[in-house]
Design goal:
Helix content is 18%, strand content 31%. It is built from two helices and eight strands, in the order αβαβββββββ. The protein has helices at 7-19, 31-40; strands at residues 21-22, 44-49, 58-62, 65-66, 73-79, 85-91, 94-101, 117-118. Strands 1, 2, 3, 4, 5, 6, 7 and 8 form an eight-stranded antiparallel sheet that branches. Strand 5 and strand 6 form a beta hairpin. The termini are far apart.
Amino acid sequence: MGRSLTAQERAVIEAMIAQADGDSPGQRPSAIQRARWAAALEQTTVDHECGCGLCPTIDLAWNGQAVGCEGEWVVLEAFSASGEMVLLFVDGDRPSCLEVVPSEDQPVALPRPEELRPARWVPAE
């Protein structure tokens, strides 16, 4: 059974939508896309929490239904102040997963939104 987003989860998702760019070159969301994703948060809840014991990753639901892999798929990427990668997956114009990737095998907490730094994609040489 799902639950509501916490204030911090919602704030991190909002910050990712507003500031983060895609995980591949040239994947910079438009202002229209960002506005649609932000508007979808009104009906977004937590469908599932990761059970690994290391991360605060959550899968999201929209209108009570898990967000499926349909339509355009975008991955927004940022880093926390302590170096953890933070990813927001968007499927079919709806946020579907907020993932925090530990940089080591140590438990990590959800970063504060103001700590997020956009990832910079650098092409391989």
